[in-house]
Q: What sequence folds into this?
């Protein structure tokens, strides 16, 4: 029983990590497509959407299979449930990367506008959050996951600032409405990506500590108890999930 | 705003919210038979009185200490499951609750084991009376080689015969409670050994219920039954909870997680962890518990 479950969990782990890498890659290409006005790159991201969708469905089916056949409990159960949720967030991030690529296609043609907006900075931050949360997932590091949650606020702030700037720019030159709207969309998509990354981080905290921290003030605060618990559960989890 | 609060209250009423830091007093299980209304919320929030209580309780078989210093509160009207590997002392502990170990030579106890605050091992305790208050169901169905009726009537007759009418009433009520009445009402005079295994086990439960106990001890009550009969017994446990305090020892962890409100994990005679079943099976506090329930033992 134990051996069978471990084998299935190991396979699931490989799948979700592979999907993470692909989604991270898509986001990087989508952002580059916008920055470099590279239509080919943007089209490449768009073409890859079915691949991510396929991965999401496969992972979900494998999770359901494990739940039905092995009826896991405790850390095993939390792992499967977390993967089930992280899987969905990753797929949504993939979709949003596709939307960004589509905006990139619009922006690649005339009228070309220079962007005084902080989109580049925002994209860097979102990608850094994604990278960090995936590292935290691999290393089962809930302290890192908490830092990711805390970083979400900065991106929200830049998004609001972009919104104000776009409004001003449209009022100043209504002829640029279309490209400016694309900029607004990209900003919005990046902000949504950061939200999904935050969801992943919260699911990680549940996986590691067994507590649902969503909708609580605790996520960013942490607190001394959390640290003690982290050390304990992390050691436990490492022993369990990295056993195979 | 008012509407939102009302909705939140209703949600809590369903017993969904009461999980965090769950102590004895705040099980999320709803009392059976209560509608999900404002009243039910009061029931859920009410602190639960402990019915059977062990205080630094130990059981020795000569020099071998089978149960070591166990302190455990088993709440009234709830189902407490005791799990653990073979030889961990869980059956010994269960049997101690109606003093089944008294007859084992060289067996003695230390500490206290209390029923409603009264020490079960005190001098003045009458074991026969105790066993009327604390019924037991065993691993293998063990009906007497008598009629179905006489099996259930055995206890009431032993505790002072009732008149025929009252006795028949008790037998029927017990068989109904044990979810067996419909299947045997036309064959009450037949030999109980002719019933199926699952029916025999429910008959044993009816026999235990006939003397109107407060506590029902179950020692792996389904390990000799097929999955269908097992499910019947598990359903029955759910129906009996609330009316009786049920303490069940089981090797089947899924069974413990399905039927119980609280779970105790024992290992080598020691109580390792005790808590709300939901917590024990999703986020156990102790590594040993985690290892056992996830099958990573040894």
A:
């Amino acid at each position: 029983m134990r051996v069978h479950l471990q084998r299935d969990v190991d396979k699931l782990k490989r799948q979700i990590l592979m999907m993470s890498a692909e989604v991270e890659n898509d986001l990087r290409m989508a952002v580059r497509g916008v920055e470099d006005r590279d239509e080919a790159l943007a089209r490449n991201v768009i073409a890859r959407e079915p691949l991510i969708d396929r991965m999401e469905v496969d992972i979900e089916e494998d999770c359901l299979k494990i739940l039905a056949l092995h009826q896991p409990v405790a850390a095993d159960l939390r792992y499967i449930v977390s993967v089930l949720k992280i899987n969905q967030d990753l797929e949504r991030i993939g979709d949003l990367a596709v939307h960004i690529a589509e905006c990139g296609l619009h922006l690649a043609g005339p009228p070309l506008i220079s962007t005084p907006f902080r989109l580049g900075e925002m994209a860097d931050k979102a990608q850094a959050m994604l990278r960090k949360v995936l590292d935290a997932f691999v290393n089962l590091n809930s302290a890192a996951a908490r830092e990711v949650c805390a970083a979400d606020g900065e991106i929200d702030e830049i998004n609001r600032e972009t919104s104000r700037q776009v409004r001003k720019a449209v009022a100043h030159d209504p002829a640029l409405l279309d490209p400016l709207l694309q900029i607004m969309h990209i900003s919005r998509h990046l902000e949504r990506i950061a939200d999904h990354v935050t969801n992943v981080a919260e699911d990680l905290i549940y996986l590691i500590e067994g507590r649902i921290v969503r909708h609580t003030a605790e996520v960013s605060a942490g607190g001394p108890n959390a640290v003690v618990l982290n050390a304990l559960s992390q050691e436990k989890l490492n022993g369990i999930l990295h056993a195979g | 705003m008012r509407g939102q609060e009302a909705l939140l209250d209703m949600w809590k009423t369903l017993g969904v919210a009461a999980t965090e830091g769950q102590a004895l007093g705040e099980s999320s299980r709803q009392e059976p038979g209560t509608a999900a209304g404002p009243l039910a919320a009061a029931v859920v929030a009410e602190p639960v009185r402990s019915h059977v209580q062990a205080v630094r309780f130990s059981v020795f078989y000569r020099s071998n200490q089978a149960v070591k210093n166990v302190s455990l509160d088993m709440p009234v009207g709830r189902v407490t499951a005791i799990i653990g590997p073979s030889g961990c002392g869980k059956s010994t502990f269960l049997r101690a609750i109606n003093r089944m170990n008294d007859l084992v030579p060289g067996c003695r106890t230390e500490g206290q084991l209390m029923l409603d605050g009264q020490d079960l091992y005190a001098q003045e305790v009458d074991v026969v009376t105790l066993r009327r208050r604390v019924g037991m169901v065993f691993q293998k169905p063990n009906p007497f080689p008598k009629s179905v009726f006489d099996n259930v009537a055995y206890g009431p007759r032993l505790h002072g015969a009732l008149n025929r009418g009252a006795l028949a009433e008790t037998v029927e009520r017990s068989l109904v409670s044990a979810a067996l009445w419909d299947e045997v009402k036309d064959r009450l005079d037949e030999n109980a050994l002719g019933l199926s295994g699952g029916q025999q086990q429910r008959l044993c439960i009816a026999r235990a219920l006939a003397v109107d106990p407060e506590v029902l001890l179950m020692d792996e009550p389904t390990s000799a039954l097929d999955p269908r009969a097992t499910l019947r017994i598990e359903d029955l446990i759910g129906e009996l909870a609330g009316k009786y305090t049920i303490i069940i020892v089981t090797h089947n962890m899924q069974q413990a997680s399905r039927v119980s409100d609280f779970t105790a994990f024992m290992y080598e005679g020691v109580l390792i962890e005790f808590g709300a079943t939901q917590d024990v099976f999703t986020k156990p506090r102790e590594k040993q518990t985690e290892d056992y329930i996830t099958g990573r033992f040894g």
